[in-house]
Design brief:
629 residues, alpha+beta, two-stranded antiparallel sheet, 24 helices
């Protein structure tokens, strides 16, 4: 059978118009006879996908990649499937090992037994499952503890293998972007494939976007991707906590957000000339509303409305319904924001009441897997109580502080001003080389952990060291270590200062500015000014993600700054220079700007505008006295 006839046969089989098994057998024979022919392999991949046998399709795609390594679509499909089906791939790999330990588990016979057991069970009115009384005396046969230990070890190995598959897939996307970033079409295809795979790793996605921007700094679509990414991570938190961590603020409606990222996202949207993207303009409105900048938010929503109106002119009937709905939403948002905070709270309360009314139309009972059947009335009563508390709190929260609250604000402002100005220093920072053995034993577990993590990268170890400024402040040792990138374009610094553990990627630039990527996203609200191009990740962010993002940030920054070059880092003297430049830039920034709005918002103090006024005044007074002295 010719390739064309085989293709027709496969299409018929996939549409249930030809015998599927016979077609698959015929296709297998063609592949066996012509292993070098990629077209037959593509047909079998299509059949596997049609039969939802995605693991077999994934295996064939890997063979296809050997035959046609230039096929980007196939490479992306391999990575997407590997990430999505990592659990099932692992299950197949470890199935034989697990059955060797417990041969009585698994198989069709067990599935039938499970069905019979379920027939012998009763379901109570509360939704609880119980077995017949005559089964109560049945005892499981004792299992060899050694077998249980072996099983536990195998399960851990399998979990690690599954995680490794996911990591390999994500970094596969990053590597493909490195290889194809200069081709805008392919770069866009890679970003789209990542999105379609529903992978949530904002730091690696950001690194890919920046790689694309490094190759195409003026391409609007990649600028939009950057803005969308920053918007998406505004409300990303490392872990839930009762109190907002440093750098975050809380909005009564929009929740907890990272202050500096909110400002950065707004700036990223504003950097796009002649923006007519309704979604991004809507997001800008949301962010401005979170900052209580209601007139500006209303303006952003009106711009979004114009973008939707323009989109309606070039839409079909089906699209018009969606676009009209969104148009009405942003117009309503604009009107609400124009009315200020009271109007926003009133609208939000009305939306919650409407949701409650819709819930009231649900059946009287519903099933919850954990608690069985529950009465809807109890649930509705709890929701109504919570809604009442929210309304009371929002209604009774004044826009201005009373006398006692004002005194508390002034007290907090004075304390924060003291600590802020206390960080301004002209002292030189010395970086002293050290031997790891000289550090206290209590520091070694973390240092060992970082050494092991770095051994899996291509970074080259430079030296152990101490930042003597930290030693002086803390009055205790402050161990650190440095690794250099193979290109020497950046270094990774790890430091233990007291109970703090800090990781930073650093680069020196020829114009005297610095590039800094740290893991201080949930531990600081301070910035170092426009001469320090900084970005913060979470403490839990893998160091490999930090390295990838910093490298991408560096190349994207250089692409935006013609004539600026990176200065190579070769020894601890360069690290010492970095630390002193960082201190100098931070000092000059503080002396010139005092305390800034993103920093203040990240302190999450009630009555932000009043607090900002007091804090700026307190900081300005102290800085003036410092300069005069």
């Amino acid at each position: 059978m010719t390739i064309e006839k085989m293709r027709v046969q496969v299409e018929l089989a996939c549409n249930d118009e030809a015998d599927f098994e016979e077609t698959m057998t015929l296709l297998d024979s063609h592949i066996a006879s012509h292993p070098e022919n990629a077209e037959y392999l593509r047909m079998r991949i299509a059949m596997f996908d049609a039969a939802y046998d995605h693991i077999s399709a994934w295996k064939d795609r890997k063979v296809l990649a050997l035959l046609q390594p230039e096929d980007l679509d196939n490479q992306l499909a391999i990575l997407a499937r590997q990430h999505k089906s990592a659990y099932w791939i692992t299950d197949e790999v470890f199935e034989e090992k697990m059955q060797a330990l417990f041969p009585d588990e698994g198989g069709d016979e067990d599935e039938d037994d499970d069905g019979k057991e379920y027939e012998d069970e009763e379901v109570s009115e509360e939704g609880e499952v119980s077995e017949h009384e005559d089964d109560e005396d049945t005892e499981d046969e004792p299992v060899d503890p050694a077998l249980l230990a072996a099983r536990e070890a195998l399960e851990k190995e399998a979990a690690s293998y599954s995680e490794q598959l996911e990591q390999q897939a994500m970094y596969g996307f990053v590597q493909l972007m490195k290889e194809h970033a200069t081709d805008a079409g392919k770069a866009d295809k890679i970003l789209t494939a990542w999105s379609d795979a529903n992978i949530w790793n904002p730091w690696l996605r950001y690194s890919m976007i920046l790689q694309a921007l490094a190759a195409h700094p003026d391409k609007v679509e990649f600028k939009k991707e950057r803005a969308r990414l920053l918007v998406a991570i505004c409300d990303a938190v490392e872990e839930d906590s009762a109190k907002a961590p440093p750098g975050f603020f809380e909005h009564m409606i929009l929740g907890r957000m990272h202050a500096h990222t909110v400002y950065e996202a707004i700036n990223a949207i504003d950097e796009i000339d002649n923006l007519e993207d309704a979604d991004l303009l809507t997001q800008k409105g949301h962010l401005l509303k979170a900052l209580d900048k209601y007139p500006a938010a209303a303006d952003a929503y009106r711009l979004a409305a114009k973008a939707y109106e323009a989109a309606l002119q070039n839409s079909n009937e089906e699209e018009q319904e969606v676009l009209n709905h969104r148009l009405q939403e942003v117009l309503q948002e604009a009107d609400t924001c124009q009315g200020g905070r009271a109007s926003i709270h009133a609208r939000h309360f009305a939306e919650l009441e409407n949701t409650m009314a819709q819930l009231g139309q649900l059946p009287a009972n519903f099933r919850n897997e954990e608690v069985g059947f529950r009465d809807r009335a109890e649930v509705m009563a709890n929701l109504k109580s919570a809604l009442g508390e929210w309304q009371e709190h929002s209604t009774n929260t004044p826009e201005k502080p009373n006398e006692q609250e004002m005194q508390e604000i002034k007290s907090v402002a004075a304390k924060v001003a003291n600590s802020t100005v206390g960080l301004v220093s002209w002292a030189h920072i010395d970086i002293a080389p050290m031997e790891k053995a000289a550090f206290k034993d209590e520091m070694h577990p973390w240092l060992d952990e970082m050494q092991q993590a770095m051994a899996k990268t291509d970074m080259q170890f430079l030296s152990w060291f101490q930042n003597m400024a930290n030693v002086l402040i803390l009055k205790r040792e402050a161990p650190g270590a440095c690794w250099l990138a193979p290109t020497q374009e950046f270094a990774l610094l790890i430091e233990a200062a007291g109970n703090a553990r800090l990781k930073r990627c650093v680069s020196l630039l020829s114009d005297g500015s610095l590039l800094l990527t740290s893991d201080a996203r949930s531990s600081s609200y301070y910035l170092s000014g426009p001469r320090v191009h900084s970005f913060a990740l979470f403490k839990s962010t893998p160091v490999t993600d930090m390295l990838a993002l910093h490298e991408a940030r560096l190349h994207a920054h250089l692409a935006r700054q013609p004539g600026v070059e990176v200065r190579l880092i070769t020894d601890l003297a360069d690290i010492e220079e970095f630390e002193n430049l960082l201190r100098t830039h931070a000092r000059e920034f503080r002396l010139a700007y005092g305390i800034t709005d993103p920093e203040i918002r990240g302190m999450n103090v009630q009555f932000n505008d009043v607090y900002a006024h007091e804090l700026k005044r307190e900081v300005a007074e102290r800085l003036a006295a410092l300069q005069a002295g």
